[in-house]
Design a protein that fits this description.
This is CCHC-type domain-containing protein. InterPro entries: Znf_CCHC, Znf_CCHC_sf. One of its GO terms (molecular function) is nucleic acid binding. By secondary structure, the chain is mainly α. The protein has two domains: 63 residues, no CATH class; 43 residues, no CATH class. It contains seven helices and no strands. The longest helix is centred in the middle third of the chain and has 17 residues.
Length: 121
């Protein structure tokens, strides 16, 4: 945008700060609508500050993970009380069908040796 502004200046066609700022904002994609609505109209008179805000917002958008990435990460970890798979085996008692966090024996303070865990399975 600043290159186009310089080209216009070379052609003896000046673009005011406000006009340049408005042109910059209206050239942004629709996904930037919430950012554009948050721009203070008083800041339109200083296009360099506006450009730095736009660049900062673009950097944030690139650094922020997508909602799909967040959902995938959340599904990797099961919360306490979630239903285990049929092959899940408790590391506390050795019985299949639950996690150690849901084990009644472990909660009651019972402990098992590795041999007893194998026998429980």
């Amino acid at each position: 945008m600043t290159r186009y502004r310089k080209e216009l200046a070379a052609l003896s066609s000046q673009l005011s700060e406000d006009e340049f700022s408005i042109t910059l904002l209206t050239s942004l994609p629709d996904s930037w609508d919430s950012f554009i609505q948050g721009v203070d109209t008083a800041s339109l008179s200083d296009s360099t500050k506006l450009i730095s805000r736009v660049l900062e917002q673009a950097r944030r958008k690139v650094a922020k993970p997508s909602s799909d990435d967040i959902a995938l990460a959340a599904n990797r970890f099961k919360s306490k009380g979630s239903k285990p798979s049929s092959t899940a085996t408790c590391h506390g008692c050795g019985r299949p069908g639950h996690f150690i966090s849901d084990c009644h024996d472990t909660a009651a303070g019972k402990t098992y040796t590795e041999q007893q865990k194998k026998e429980n399975y």
